[in-house]
Amino acid sequence: MFERYTEHARRCIFFARYEASQFGSPEITAEQLLLGILREEMAVGSRLDPGAPAAIRKELERLAQKRERVSTSVDLPLSPEAKRALVYAAEEAERLHHKLIDAQHLVLGLLRVEDSLAAELLQKHGMALDRYREIVAEECSERPAASHQRKPPPGNARAESLEAIIHAL
After folding, report:
1. What is the overall mean pLDDT for the chain?
2. Where are any strands of DSSP class E within 23-155?
3. What is the spatial distance between Cα 28 and Cα 3, in angstroms, rounded to a whole number?
4. What structural domains does the chain harbor?
5. What is the pLDDT of residues 93-124, one digit of tens each?
6. Is 60 exceeded by the pLDDT of residue 18?
7. Alpha-carbon span 145 to 127, nearest angstrom
8. Across-strand partners of 28?
9. Can you say whether the dihedral through the CA atoms of 134, 138, 144, 145 is positive or negative?
10. Closest by Cα among 78, 79, 104 to 92
């Protein structure tokens, strides 16, 4: 499933898994996916209102149920909203004619899950789906094609480790 994901997108999901364990969540939610993206992909945070990443984290921590942390070695499923966001991310990549799914596509996927708190928070802090889609299309057209469609080289231990972790998810 994750073979089309760039290393950045995979790390976003890895960090979402970490956030879920810190919140004691029984699943990886769209909101934790958002936190994972904000942790990994600074460019996304820079597209939001000033101070938005910290405000989003604070809001999610305030709303979270107080639970005991879950070990990071425990497999956690994706919530229905998070699954929808990943499906939408793949659709957005295809719409933009990108072979791989990157962190920006994950953001577009989250924005399309309109009934999620993650989408609400992104919108509240200045990110609109149509405008961000234009930005992603512009940024990717400015880069050489290989830069947003490359895979990590074989034998890359870090990439292989991330692949194993994501496969376990």
Report:
1. 86
2. none
3. 19
4. 2-168 (1.10.1780.10)
5. 999 999 999 999 999 999 999 999 999 999 99
6. yes
7. 26
8. 78
9. positive
10. 104
